[in-house]
Design a protein that fits this description.
- This protein is an all-alpha fold.
- The chain has a domain of 131 residues.
- The protein is built from 8 helices and no strands.
- The radius of gyration is 65 Å and the shape is rod-shaped.
């Protein structure tokens, strides 16, 4: 497990370093995945070496076991030939190879267990890296959404800041005040340069353009029509020619009763003279 622990420590170190910097999470995630792949490649090499060592030990074990069996068969052959001296030498060799095979078998079992754990750890690490690859796009999307929300909050905070608007209002008020003062100064200058008596009479005079004054134009028309009497009072308008003749032909007695015709009056006078 030493190789896997070392690999996990390196990956955690890379991730923590990326989180601490946090300059560009998208680039850092890509870099972390790249580091993971590189470390995974190194771990595969280490595991391959461990597997090779395990197979070598197994081959040595099998060789010692085979040699022990061979010397045992030779001892049996020597016994058949009544060569006990050779049989004893063969048994000694057989015992030596058996002892070696026992030691190698113990070492091989430990190496085999370690290799299997490394294989499992390597598979788990590969699955985690694949899962990280799948989550990378989701994490990048979350990061972009967080950045967008941050920009929105900063913009809203800027809009809620009234200092700029207050400054604008103050400047507008200052400009308007400057304009009012300039107009007042011009009025004062005009007043000082002109004749006060002429200015007073100028106020009494009618406007230069009477057409623009309805009341003045109305008075002009009434004066032209002879409707303005003494003191400027308005008389009854003159009647038309037809109305004037009607009035001359039909004088009123003042009582509201119509007068008799001229022929009737003359007949009445003739009768009185007779």
């Amino acid at each position: 497990m030493g190789i896997f622990s070392k690999l996990s420590s390196l990956i955690r170190s890379n991730i923590n370093d990326a989180i601490a910097k946090a300059e560009n999470p998208e680039k850092m995630l890509n870099q972390v995945l790249l580091d993971m792949r590189e470390q995974l490649a190194k771990a595969k090499q280490e595991v391959a070496i461990a597997i090779a060592d395990e197979r070598k030990l197994r081959a040595q074990l099998e060789e010692e076991q085979r040699l022990a069996g061979d010397w045992e068969h030779r001892a049996m052959l020597a016994i058949r030939e009544n060569r006990d001296d050779l049989a004893k030498q063969a048994l000694i060799r057989q015992q030596e190879h058996t002892q070696r095979s026992v030691a190698l078998e113990e070492t091989w079992h430990k190496q085999n267990e370690e290799t299997e754990r490394l294989k499992d750890a390597l598979r788990q690490l590969n699955e985690k890296i694949e899962e990280a690859k799948r989550k990378k796009n989701l994490l990048i999307a979350k990061q972009r959404r967080a950045q967008a929300q941050k920009r929105i909050h900063e913009t809203m905070a800027g809009l809620s800041d009234k200092s700029a608007f207050d400054t604008f209002d103050r400047m507008a008020e200052r400009i308007e005040e400057t304009e009012r003062r300039a107009l007042a100064a011009a009025e004062v200058t005009e007043t000082l340069q002109g004749d006060s008596l002429e200015q007073e009479f100028a106020k009494l005079a009618p406007p230069a353009h009477g057409g623009n004054n309805i009341e003045f134009r109305l008075l002009q028309l009434k004066e032209q029509m002879g409707m303005l009497g003494a003191g400027g009072s308005t008389e009854r308008p003159a009647l038309s020619d037809g109305s004037a003749r009607a009035s001359a032909e039909e004088p009123s007695s003042g009582s509201g009763v119509p007068l008799p015709d001229d022929d009737i009056v003359r007949d009445a006078e003739v009768e009185e003279e007779a």
